[in-house]
């Protein structure tokens, strides 16, 4: 048997999550935005699913060398974390009013204003996809396109449920 090599070479200058963290004050409170790449390039904003932050939600995509190379060479990535979901977040006090998904969509617009971004491409996962869809419907002129992963915003119908059970049995 020949020897196998399981080593991977990583260019330290191209780490996918190399960037700068910003705390953006919005009308709904402060949120964290992690910016990766050259801010002169077109903007791609990401919004993760519930209970996830940008690292836990998007690391699979951005640690894939082909995807990271394509995305980081062509876009500046703005990872928006929902309030209380950023790395090292404190427990949210029960005194703090909960934000609606419409409030979260408006926060996205405030983030764009903070960075002086006129138009963006949006990438959202599940709840993040729903929030970015609401953002796109409300601020059409600011959205170049949507990439939505599992954008379910309501319970599946019985037909959809059965279809998934037949195609993907457990």
From TrEMBL:
InterPro entries: AB_hydrolase_fold, NDRG
Top-level taxonomic group: Eukaryota
Stored Pfam families: Ndr
Family of this protein: Belongs to the NDRG family.
The protein's name: Pollen specific protein sf21, putative
Organism the protein comes from: Ricinus communis
């Amino acid at each position: 048997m020949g020897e196998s090599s399981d080593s991977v070479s990583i260019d330290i200058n191209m780490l996918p999550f190399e960037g700068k963290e910003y705390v953006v004050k919005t009308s709904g409170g402060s949120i964290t935005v992690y910016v990766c790449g050259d801010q002169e390039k077109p903007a791609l904003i990401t919004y993760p699913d519930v209970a996830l932050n940008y690292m836990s939600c998007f690391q699979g995509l951005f640690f894939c060398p082909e995807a990271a190379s394509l995305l980081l060479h062509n876009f500046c990535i703005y990872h928006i974390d929902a309030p209380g979901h950023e790395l090292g977040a404190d427990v949210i006090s029960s005194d703090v009013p909960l934000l609606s998904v419409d409030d979260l969509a408006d926060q996205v617009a405030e983030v764009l204003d903070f960075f002086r971004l006129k138009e963006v491409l949006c990438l959202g996962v599940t709840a993040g996809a729903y929030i970015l869809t609401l953002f796109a419907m409300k601020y059409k002129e600011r959205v170049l396109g949507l990439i939505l992963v599992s954008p379910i915003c309501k319970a599946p119908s019985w037909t959809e449920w059965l279809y998934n059970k037949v195609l993907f049995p457990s």
